[in-house]
Amino acid sequence: MDECTDRLLDVQVLKFGTYTLRTGLVSPVYVDFREIFGFPDLLCELAELIFQASREAQYELVCGVPYTALPLATCLSITHRLPLLIRRKEAKGYGTKRIVEGKFVPGQTCLIVEDVVTFGTSILDTARILQQAGLKVPRIISAAAMSYGQRTLLPTTAPFATRLLSLMEEKRTNVALAADVLSCAEALALAEELGPEICMFKIHADALGGFDESFHLRLAEIAKRHRFLLFEDRKFADIGSVARRQYEGGIFRISHWADVVTVHAVAGPSALLSLQEACSSTDNGAFIVSEMSCQGSLAVGNYTQAAVEMAKVCRDFVAGFICTSRVTTDPSWVLVTPGVKLQEGGDGQGQQYLTPEEVIGRRGTDVIVVGRGIIDADDRLATAQAYRHAAWQAYEGRVAQI
Ligand code: S5P
Q1: For the purposes of burial, counting CB atoms within 10 Å of the CB of 87, is it exposed (0-12), middle (13-18) or buried (19 or more)?
Q2: What's this model's pTM, rounded to 2 decimal places?
């Protein structure tokens, strides 16, 4: 793979610099896949890497996302004798009017190959069309997709988002623990036991018995040793001046120890701007609550869209969103999803649970927040590891495999 990457750089398929993409995003990396057509041996080498990466998926047909991935799919088809399908961009207005060309029968399984994935829209369109034609799509393979690490290179990624994305990539975990226990002593024991498995430790300081300064000093020491970030789920929702006092003062003095906090969008951007001013380090940040996991939440539709839009006024402070779906396709924001359990369902009090595979793999968010799924388990460590494994597998399935 490294040799192949070197050659991709040599022939300028892969470029580093400052590039404004079609979407308006500025990227430090650019993949000009069409350049590869002049180097058939390199094209075959890349197709072979894709074949190796997709080996454990069982498929009988191969289809490239039009147009630039078609030669890759063709190469795979010829080398491995896999029948090729072509998905037209529009159905022909004459003759067969077919949108999927090639020989297949409904129920067969097809691998979709794409050259570069930024947001995945073209791939999802192709998958939908193949499924409508009766085909099964087990796996989508891309020659390039944005990993957590790559997203830290985007100039629009906020400092806290960069810290979190790098930590997730290095530690290989996208699980945040919701440490909703009764006392600070219990929270410290949890942090010590599960710290090695998680990227963030989330608390509601006002719901923990025995809160004092020694608690957050000890928590910060554990966080440093086990490498996780401290998340106070305060959900600020007041006018700017009050939100600032709640952040800096009182018993909790949140700004002194929390790396990240949550802020509701309901009061507009003033709370965010005040918190940013009061922030003890420019590396800290906030997540805007743009959707909620509970039944009947009003954070939907236009509210959600306005919350996402609002983040732009405070780009250095807002790291991303609390959400249950892909509320934005901009990869600089980190999407954090609560309401996650290994089995779908509810808690009888309005909470609704989705699985790690559903939120990370299918809906395309980045971090799962798990509370009772781990805390109520007999073996908390083994259960945290099971969530970590499931969420990481779902992430790896989403980004490039080669
Ligand atoms: O919409 C939301 C937003 C949040 S931050 N729904 C949520 O459940 N949360 C938080 O995630 C909630 O405050 C709790 O700490 C955690 C979910 O806990 P669980 O025990 O249901 O996994």
Answers
A1: buried
A2: 0.72
